[in-house]
Amino acid sequence: MFAEVPTQIQALQAKVVSRLLEPERLAWKVFQLHHLSDAPRTRALAYGATILFSTISIGCLQSPARLTGYVLAFRALRPHRLLKINAMQDVLNEPIFYNRQVSVPLGSSVTGRATGSTASRPLTPHDEPLMLATGITKVAHLQAALQQQHPAAFTACLQSVLMTMPPPWRAIATAAPTAPAWRQGLSASGSQLIQNTQTGQHHLAKWGHSNICGVTTTL
Q1: What pLDDT score was predicted for residue 94?
Q2: Please, where are the H alpha helices in the chain?
Q3: Which long-range contacts (CB under 8 A, 24 or more apart) does 66-70 make?
Q4: What are phi and psi of 138, to 5 degrees?
Q5: 163 band by pLDDT with thresholds 50, 70 and 90
Q6: Beta strands 103-105 and 120-122: pairing type?
Q7: What is the spatial order of strands in the sheet that 202-208 belongs to?
Q8: Helix (H) or strand (E) holding 121
Q9: Distance between CA atoms of 135 and 138, rounded to whole angstroms?
Q10: Which pLDDT belongs to residue 216?
């Protein structure tokens, strides 16, 4: 029984920090997210709570000891499942750096793709600092950049990063960006709606200060 106490403590720690992934807005989350996202080596990434899923070193977070324990517990127990992501919107939201799916050979910079190899490591900003300097930290950013004209050196840099990704991700990143997935509308009764243009589903929205505060009902 007493042998299970450390595991129970670890589970409680992971549960606390996992609440950062929930949409509910609470004051304590602001402070926790500040520590996770505002360290010098994580600020430019703008990954927010999703940094919990990354491979970035815990030392880079420069977080208080308690929060560090929470993050370590979350990573140890992995309450999330590491699945292959191939849906377009999910891939576009994926981070480029510290992502297990975006990797380079051990002991090298971005010179080739080693996705799926045991002798590989996740891509980091040190491999391609120009990406971070230009704000390209997610697959969606890379997709937008690939649609534009750039100097040859920067284009080569974009292509090198592209080749570190799994083939399905490369296909999505090189495809032309699609139109926004949501649009506003009105129901027959005059209620404000938002529509998913890909699925056709309408959702009744709660509005406040001209912003969608949350979806309450699916029609």
Answers
A1: 92
A2: 5-18, 27-37, 58-61, 65-77, 88-92, 129-133, 139-146, 152-162, 167-173
A3: 67/17, 67/32, 67/35, 67/36, 69/13, 70/13, 70/14, 70/16, 70/17
A4: -130, 165
A5: very high
A6: antiparallel
A7: 182-186, 192-196, 202-208, 211-218
A8: strand 120-122
A9: 9
A10: 34
CA distance 34 to 136: 21
Q: Which of 83, 46, 51 is nearest to 70 (CA)?
A: 51
Is the separation of the CB atoms in 123 and 97 below 8 Å? yes
CB of 99 closer than 8 Å to CB of 123: yes
The pLDDT > 70 percentage for the chain reads 72
Which residues fall within 8 angstroms of residue 32, CB to CB, at 6 or more apart? 17, 20, 67
Pairwise CA distance, residues 198 & 90, whole Å: 14
Query: 213 vs 72, which has greater pLDDT?
Result: 72
Q: What is the pLDDT confidence band of residue 96, given thresholds at 50, 70 and 90?
A: very high
Give 3-state DSSP helix, strand, coil % of the chain, rounded to 5. Answer: 40, 15, 40
What tens digit of pLDDT does each residue of 135-162 get? 999 999 999 999 999 999 999 999 999 9
DSSP 48: G
